[in-house]
Amino acid sequence: MTNTGLSDEEAHRLLERCGPNELGKQKKTTLRSRIFAQLRDPLILVLLVAAALTVATGDFADAVVICVVVLFNTTVGVAQEVRADNAVAALSAMTAPTARVTRDGVEQQVPSSTVVPGDALVLGEGDIIPADAALTYAVALLVDESALTGESVPVDKDTHATGPQAGQLQAGTVVLRGRATATVTATGADSALGRIAASLHARQQLTPLQKRLAGLGRVLALVTVGLCLLVLALGLIRGQSLETMAVTAISLVVAAVPESLPAVVTLGLALGARRMAARNAVVRRLSAVETLGSVTVLATDKTGTLTEGRMVVERVWTPQGTATLGGTGYAPAGDLKALDQDDSHASGSIEAARELLVAAALCNDASLIPPGTDSPQWSALGDPTEAALLAAAAKAGCAHDDLVRTHPRVGEIPFDSLRKRMLTVHSTSSGTFEAFLKGAPEMVLDRVLLGDSPALLEQARREAARLSAQGYRVLAVASGSLDTVPDLLDDAESGLRLLGLTAISDPPKPTAVTTVEACRRAGITPVLITGDHPATARAIALRVGILTGEKDAESAHRIATGAELAAGHVPDLTAVRVFARTTPQQKLDIIQAWREHGDVTAMTGDGVNDGPALRQSDIGVAMGRRGTEVARQAADLVLADDELPSVISAVEEGRRVYANIRRFLFYALAGGAAEILVMLAGPLFGLALPLRAGQILWINLLTHGLTGVAMGAEPVSPDAMRQPPRPPQQHILGDGLWQRVLRLSLLVTATSLAASLWVRHSGGPWQTVLFLALLAAQLGVSLGLRERLFTRRNLYLPAAVAVAAGLGMAAVYVPFLADLLETSRPTGTGLALAMAAGLVGFAAARAEALWSRTHRPNRRPSV
Length: 863
Hints:
Blueprint: H1 8-18, H2 31-39, H3 42-56, H4 60-82, H5 87-94, E1 98-103, E2 106-111, E3 120-123, E4 132-144, H6 146-149, E5 155-157, E6 168-169, E7 174-186, H7 192-199, H8 208-237, H9 242-256, H10 261-278, E8 281-283, H11 287-293, E9 297-300, E10 312-318, E11 321-325, E12 336-338, H12 346-362, E13 367-369, E14 379-381, H13 384-395, H14 400-406, E15 409-413, E16 421-427, E17 433-439, H15 441-444, H16 454-469, E18 473-482, E19 497-505, H17 512-521, E20 525-529, H18 534-544, H19 550-554, E21 559-561, H20 562-566, E22 578-580, H21 584-596, E23 601-605, H22 611-616, E24 619-623, H23 629-634, E25 637-639, H24 645-681, H25 693-711, H26 737-761, H27 766-784, H28 796-813, H29 815-821, H30 828-854
Parallel strand pairs: 9-20, 9-23, 20-22, 21-22, 23-24, 24-25
Antiparallel strand pairs: 1-2, 1-3, 3-7, 4-5, 4-6, 4-7, 8-25, 10-11, 10-19, 11-12, 13-14, 15-16, 16-17, 17-18, 18-19
Helix pairs in contact: 2-4, 3-4, 3-8, 3-9, 8-9, 8-24, 9-25, 10-24, 10-25, 11-24, 12-13, 24-25, 24-26, 24-27, 25-27, 25-28, 26-27, 26-30, 27-28, 27-30, 28-29
């Protein structure tokens, strides 16, 4: 019965009531809101207060420096954030711009945005389905749903098939083969694509680095203000003027707060992003650089990430024996070998396998496309499984074009979801005909169709079950000779001879095993989340090492399906290592479970179905080549080469960035604390006002400025990827760093005061020597903290130290600066003591760095 569809009037009325077939758009975030969000960071607030105080005291130079740092940090943050708001727009671009519908009994083409529930869709090969719909008619319909479900194999659709989704079509999927009509059931936000778009609206929480820096900012704000008020009070008690002590206290605030930290962080992240780009990992959000270094769980999809993303025939079983095929992808290059090279019947099994592959190539509707300007690799047109059979036949020396020319097709029964098999009939040069049959083993290994012995058929069933349990997609192939073409082709499906079975899979990438091994060595837990079949997921997990053996695979709750999750049969999602047949919402639940467990999650993916999980995870990683635009826009990191090892390289860069931030904090906080301690302890030794405000600010400018920023470019530690990730809850000053800051600051304070008191005892310019000693000690610390002392990979740091030392001497010997900073020319002894303080700072920092490397605490291993 022909479906005449809606009338134009009904369609118009439904469009007004249901709205356009478009995905809901997020409320646009204003520029003012973005800027305000950046300025709410506690450390930035402290810097803004310090800038206001320096303006109040007339120190405009330092106020400008602080404001430039804040402006630079805010600008970069806002610019990077804007790029992350395009995910929903990319989803809209995926829907078909036009659709074919039947209205008033006439087929017409309309904009996809005007499709409404009840419309009668007309679908053909290559069409993108514009809305969710229920099939009303279908012929050999094959739909690629991988972008939504993660299922690597296209799905047959039929009106008579059983199952919850058998007769349903979803928006955003693609018709690979056949034709159909369907009635629209849901559009826009109510469609499957719309529900995924709604999931993308959830905003991420603060990254681990942002959380740590926010906590540090609060601590610094409280401690710094408290100590500087103490210095102010003590100075007033000693009889110093309020104006002098106010300026000194404000200078100490500026000195104690590492105002270069935002610049160091931004520079480190930017350099990390550039290095990652050179290693095929493109960063879309700067904070993602450091977040990768914190990752404790790597959740990866299967198709195209761990696997090639192309179906390949790996084994051919025949009654004469088993043969294997080499090669990757759809390229017709590889060897056909007998599984047992010592088998005396090896040549027989090879010939039997070749005969099977010829039959499979003829009973086939796909084609292979050679490399061209648009694609550097062989690609498939049609069903990927059939394309794999063509490639396998070519590897066996049977080119498809030659086969078609010598065996033209004269009849066929197309594959459908009810029969689960396909039959073709071909003429031969001798005037006879050959019938070839391929399909699901349960439908082909039937005595009604095959004339083989029951024992052989039972052997084939056992082999098919064994291969299926290993994750292969198994097809049975049979053939038979005909004198004439029967009027009813169904009559050709009897008395056929079983040729054997083909085992087809999407094989793991060569780099997958080493990548998973690298994850485990770095203390990162690998987890597989896929929409594919549980047996396939299990097989891949075993082959790449996510499951470490059959015992691991069989242990309780190491493998779970979406149905088990929906039924609540999995009490602890973090105990599972392989998830199969998962929905987009379940992927979100899995990621959230790990985050609630206290882990930092990275999620890789390439399909629309991965979009919500990519956005919700701490770090989303999308495939650049085969990935959908939705996945790329939702992700923080895009792999330009689609290779998972690039993630490991990015993790290494993240760890380098975080190590450099902690190194700078160690250096800057130790120096700032030393300056405060000098101001507190100096009067106890008779030094009424140890340092002038200008001298404090000059030290701060030289140490926290050029030198501090250069520390952010230090190279990665050689053993960075042999250490477990730091605990996610660890404070940025944790792991003993604040104790090291205290030890080093006390030593720098004692050394500087000792040099000053020595010169004071001899009647020399003790304040100038204290100024030079503090500067030299901090510069010595910056060199002593290097991971690789004599490396040439960051020549900016020694150059910055040399420039800072020169400007420090200029403050003493250049008359203009000496008058401004109230310094005097030191004696030879005073200068030597200041240099000695620099050597002590270097030696102390070197000892701290070596002690830290040899006393790293044991952390939670990957499981």
